[in-house]
Amino acid sequence: MKPTFYIAAAALLLAMPACVSKKKYLLAESGRLAALEREADLKERLIASEDENASLSSRLSALLRDTADLGRQIRNYQTMLSTNLTEQDKLNALLQEKMQELDERAQTISQLQDMINEQREQVQSILASVRDALLGFSSDELSIREENGKIYVALSDKLLFRSGSAQVDKRGKEALAKLAEVLNKQSAVDVSIEGHTDTKPIHTARFEDNWDLSVIRATSVVRILTKEYGVNPLQIVPSGRGEFLPVADNDTEEGRSKNRRTEIIIAPKLDKLYHIIDN
Q1: Which of 8, 65, 87, 196 is deepest in the core (most CB within 10 A)?
Q2: Cβ–Cβ contacts within 10 Å for residue 251, how many?
Q3: Residue 169 gets which letter from DSSP?
Q4: SS3 at position 2
Q5: Mean per-residue pLDDT of the chain
Q6: Under a CB-based contact definition with an 8 Å cutoff, are residues 182 and 130 in contact?
Q7: Considering the entire predicted model, what is its pTM?
Q8: Does residue 81 sit in helix, strand or coil?
Q9: Superfamily of domain 122-278
Q10: What pLDDT digit, counting tens, does each position of 99-153 carry?
Q11: Angle, to 10 degrees, between the axis of helix 2-15 and the axis of helix 22-133?
Q12: Could you tell me if 169 and 162 are in contact, meaning their C-beta atoms sit under 8 angstroms apart?
């Protein structure tokens, strides 16, 4: 661009009228050329500046896009963090609830264990009292055992009843009287009276069968304990088992004799235990 401009300027100089002072002309022309050169330089610098501005604008747009993406990521992370904190709070609350439930269960188990231990002690105390009360009776007349937290007093039929009868003999009443002394001191026990027979069938005017005989014998014992010796009727329940719960072989006379019995079963009341378990 500059060489062409200089050639044009030289041609113009040669063509100028002789009347113009060559020196002045050259000065003027030199100033004009310098101005044109400065103008051209400014145009180049302007173009370069515009290119740089465009580049900066492009970089700014890219930076704005990156900033917007970063903002979205930050908001997403904040949301995720808030969600995680919420879930953690829920887990902590659930953990506290389960720990409290575990503590309550541990307390319940401790209470139950204490009550079981107390009942075991109670059973052993009653067992000792029953054995002391019935000390004067032989093993052929009765037996005493503790099983599954209950006390079983098995009275043979020869102690209580004559054969085929439901009327309690005098010796049997003596045993019931001594047993009643123990029961009357124990308000927190339940008492079951179970009548048992051997397998020999019976059919009389009074007894239809062994079921009938076992039930009536149990009822006779209950009546004596409650009416004659003051045992609380609400503590005592009679039942007949017939020949269906033998303790010995019914094929021998000795076995049949053991099976013909009346069992008095003494058990601590379980109301408190059931109440704790239910709650």
Answers
A1: 196
A2: 8
A3: P
A4: helix
A5: 84
A6: yes
A7: 0.65
A8: helix
A9: OmpA-like domain (3.30.1330.60)
A10: 888 888 888 788 878 888 888 999 999 999 999 999 999 999 999 999 999 999 9
A11: 160
A12: yes
